[in-house]
Amino acid sequence: MAEQTSNSWHLDKKVPISLIAAILFQFAVALLAYADLKKDVELLKQDAGSLHARDAMHEDQMKEALRLMQEQYQRLDSKLDRLIERSGK
């Protein structure tokens, strides 16, 4: 008699079908979760691009607002200097 040395695996009849179904169900759920996670990452990448553009626009608006405030401050400063000169005469 020759001994059979097979490296292949086999399924024993003692393994309940419910265990096999549960493992397959968990695998399917893991695949769905992975697909959903991948979709969320793609959406976040798109949002990051739009947020970057919006931040750049806000930065430009803030620079313009600061420039206008500096101009107003300079005009106010010059008006105060003129008032001080007039009151000193």
In helices, the fraction of residues equals: over 70%
- Count of DSSP helices? 1
Mean pLDDT score: 89
Strand segment tally: 0
Rg is 37 Å
Note the run of SSEs as H and E.
H
Instruction: Report strand %.
Output: under 5%
Low-confidence stretches: none
Separation of the first and last Cα atoms: 129 Å
- Major beta sheet, specifics? none
Class by SSE composition: mainly alpha
Based on Cα principal axes, name the global outline.
Answer: rod-shaped
Question: Would you kindly provide a written description of the structure presented here, covering whatever features stand out?
Answer:
The protein has one helix at residues 17-88. It contains 1 helix and no strands. The protein has 89 residues and is an all-alpha fold. The termini are far apart.
